[in-house]
Amino acid sequence: MAYPYDGEPNLRPGAERAERAAHSLAPRFDPELALNELFEDFLAGSASLINARTERTYRYDWGLYRAWLTETATPAVLGTITKQHLIDYIAFLQRRPKAKGRGTLSSHSGHAYVRVIRTFVRWLVTETYYPIDPLAGGKRGAMPRLGPRVLRVAKSTDVETLLAGSAKGEARGAIERAGRGRDEFIVVLVTDTGLRNSEVCALRVGDVDVADGWVLVKAGKWDRERRVPLSRETVAALRLYLRRNRPVLSGRAPEFVAADDVLVLSRTGAPLTPPGLYQAMGRAYRRGGGTGRFGLHRLRHLWGTTAAEGGMHPRISQSIMGHEDEKSERVYQHPSDTAIKREHARVTPLRDLAPACRRRLA
Fold it and tell me: Is it the case that residue 1 has pLDDT exceeding 50?
């Protein structure tokens, strides 16, 4: 839901006076402190909690905020941070046009850009630079927090559609043919392992053990490494990709490939990026007869659902998917209609009726 901004400050009566008085409770509060310097201190203090990709995202989103400050001629100092100021920024994001396509940013995109500001402000409060969190509460209640989006879970038919799209139609050259072979390998890999998009793009040639059937994921969240097993089908698709498709994309024979080289390449020979991966999967999905867009992350949800319904121990699936705790695991477990009907039939009280009564009802 969008934040209900109506131009009025989201403050209780007398809150401005209370906020000014509360500044005396923050020993390090100085309204003239530069926000940029504080933000760098925030990143340095969070270095052990966030990885390099998260830091890049934080810097990008912070750059948007700084650009808005410049555009509105607002000084980038600590005294600028007030509840009304942050509400104005959220309202600005809701009116911001999309980078691609028509329309304005969705509520989820707007909240994603504000997330770094929320985290930064909480850090300011923790470090006693600021007395209270201006985003917590108000006369309209707490600022809205959107939960995780529930994606449409992929089905086995979607995997078949992607694989068909990787082979369907005549390729216009060796590069396109190799690109389709790469897409087929990626679909098989993610279906088999549940890797994240960024993890697929960050894989190196030396990270895959073809002989024993393992892949070493080094670029997971929290910079934690984990080993994920590969099925025979995935190992076969990997061998084919390394032997036939990757040499065409890279322009180098397999014997000249180093262990530190990027495994998945784009059609230009450069490392494949998550946006490029998203576009490639969308093309394969539509070629195979699918409609609309298809995010490869759906296959990660499919893996989590299949593992749960197959009775895999939560600790094992947690290790394979690279989650910090079992709570994160539940987001990826969506009971299928078949599983729901099977369990319902097993526990319904109608099963305990006398056989004669059940026959009469049937």
Answer: no
φ, ψ (nearest 5 deg) of residue 344: -65, -45
- Note the pTM of the prediction, 2 decimals: 0.62
pLDDT for the residue 150: 54
The helix or strand, by DSSP H or E, that contains position 216, with its residue range, turns out to be: strand 214-217
Partner residues linked to 208 by β-bridges: 215
Is the per-residue pLDDT at 67 higher than 80?
yes
Tell me the average pLDDT across 321-337.
69
**Model pLDDT for residues 5-35, shown as the tens digit of each residue:** 444 444 444 445 445 544 455 677 888 899 9
Query: For residue 296, which amino acid is it?
Result: L
pLDDT tens for each residue of 253-300: 988 899 999 999 999 999 999 889 999 999 999 999 988 888 888 888
In whole angstroms, give the CA distance from residue 290 to residue 283.
Answer: 9
- The residues, any chain, with a CB within 8 Å of residue 328's CB and separated by 6 or more, are 318
Q: CA–CA separation, 149 vs 54, rounded Å?
A: 19
Q: How many CB atoms lie within 10 A of CB 41?
A: 14
- Spell out the residues 6+ positions from residue 64 whose beta carbon is closer than 8 angstroms to its own: 113
Report the alpha-carbon distance of residue 223 to residue 243 in Å, rounded: 30
Question: What pLDDT shows up at residue 7?
Answer: 43
Q: Residues 6 or more apart from 78 whose CB is under 8 A from it?
A: 29, 30, 31, 32, 33, 34, 35, 38, 124, 129, 130
Reply yes or no on whether the pLDDT at 248 is more than 90. Answer: yes
Amino acid residing at 258? A
d(CA 257, CA 236): 19
